[in-house]
Records
---
Amino acid sequence: MLWKQESFVVLRPLQIEFFRNLLENGDALSGTNRTLTVFGYNYHVQELVFVGWFYHLNPSLGINNWYSNFGTFRGFARPCPPGGTN
């Protein structure tokens, strides 16, 4: 009930420097969205990479040995620069 009593309090996300350099599984595939229809509702989901893409696992632990959930990435990450995927 605390949320109801203090419903006008604005909570701001914490800006902690430590978390700025973490690996994000959606950044590698920005712009690769798919539309999935479930029970008549459309969902626009972004493709995400699996842990094997970051850690150069061969074969990948993902389904079908893919490195992303829709199969766009079929190889692990290349070192930066230039980056990208194999």
---
Amino acid sequence: MAIFAALVLAAGICCAVPGTSGPAADFREGLASLRSAATPGDTAAAARSLHRAAEAGHAEAQGLRDELKQRMSSSEVARAQRLSREWYETRVDPR
């Protein structure tokens, strides 16, 4: 729990680091979404970004993604999964 809080608070610092793509950028995007998570949609967007970073091997994103998933409701998890699918379909595998 302390790791989760520390990472969310660090989002302001992490998000200021330049980078346009890759696991580190996805991780920063996830932290930024968590920091502004005023709505369930922001939590789902954070989970989507953290999942992309985690799948690419970003160690911090892996831990935070798993912790966030435990805190999310089943509807938030479903929305995050849908957002991940939509992202993949439009950017990685456009059919």
